[in-house]
């Protein structure tokens, strides 16, 4: 279940949550964030490789490439057995911005994006079938959890791919981790 919680940026215990897809999409659209649901045009095996995954979502990918001029697309997978999972997680947990869009489509698994816009923090729980497009220069961080399980399609305008400019803020430490957030949903 996708979810959105909007917090005052100085009160991480005072968020208002929604799990209604239309409400999430509309609230994120109001801050320039695209949030969509995609469906594959064929069945995918759990071990499907990059070419198979990209082919299964080719119509949606092509639409975004035409709309925004994305130059490259790839698939990234991460699971609890990855030897560098802790280091990768720590890199994404630090608040940062990008000169490029950050576009992620969740083929499987989940992740928690935090968007720090004006005086609010938007926690967006993305799950299988969700696409989020964080505009360039939007302050944010991401948590994949202590034991990640995700497969995502990534789209980039710049050939350099994921390049972050870290803000140096420790705001992310004040908000729930993915594991804490998901535990709070039950």
Features:
about 190 residues, about 35% strand, single chain, globular, alpha+beta, two-stranded antiparallel ribbon, 5 helices, Jelly Rolls, nine-stranded antiparallel beta sheet
Walk me through what this model shows.
With 186 residues, this protein is α+β, with helices and mostly antiparallel strands. The protein has a single domain, classed as Jelly Rolls (Sandwich). It is built from 5 helices and 11 strands; from the N terminus they run ββαβααβαβββββββα. Strands 1, 2, 3, 4, 6, 7, 8, 9 and 10 form a 9-stranded antiparallel β-sheet that branches. Strands 5-11 form a two-stranded antiparallel sheet. The model has no long low-confidence stretch (mean pLDDT 92).
Question: Distance between termini?
Answer: 11 Å
Cα radius of gyration in angstroms: 16 Å
Structural class: alpha+beta
Q: Taking all residues together, what is the mean pLDDT? A: 92
Under CATH, the topology is which? Jelly Rolls
Largest sheet: 9 strands, antiparallel
Catalogue the unreliable spans. Answer: none
The CATH architecture can be named as Sandwich
* Number of separate domains: 1
- List how many beta strands DSSP finds: 11
Tertiary shape: globular
Compute the number of helices.
5
* Approximate helicity band: 10-25%
The CATH class name reads Mainly Beta
What is the beta-strand fraction? 35-45%
CATH superfamily: Jelly Rolls
Order of helices and strands: EEHEHHEHEEEEEEEH
């Amino acid at each position: 279940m996708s979810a959105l919680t909007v917090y005052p940026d100085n009160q991480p215990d005072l968020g208002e949550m929604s799990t209604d897809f239309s409400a999430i999409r509309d609230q994120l659209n109001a801050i320039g964030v695209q949030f969509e649901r995609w469906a594959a045009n064929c069945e995918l095996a759990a071990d499907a490789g990059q070419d198979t995954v990209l082919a299964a979502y080719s119509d949606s990918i092509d639409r975004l490439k035409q709309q925004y001029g994305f130059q490259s697309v790839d698939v990234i997978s991460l699971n609890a057995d990855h030897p560098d999972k802790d280091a990768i997680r720590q890199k994404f947990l630090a608040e940062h911005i990008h000169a490029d869009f950050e576009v992620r489509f969740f083929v499987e698994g989940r992740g928690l994006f935090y968007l720090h816009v004006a005086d609010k923090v938007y926690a967006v729980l993305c799950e299988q079938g969700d696409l989020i497009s964080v505009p360039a220069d939007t302050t944010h961080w991401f948590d994949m959890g202590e034991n990640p399980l995700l497969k995502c399609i990534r789209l980039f305008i710049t050939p350099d791919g994921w390049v972050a400019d870290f803000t140096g803020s420790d705001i992310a430490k004040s908000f729930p981790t993915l594991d804490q957030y998901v535990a709070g949903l039950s």
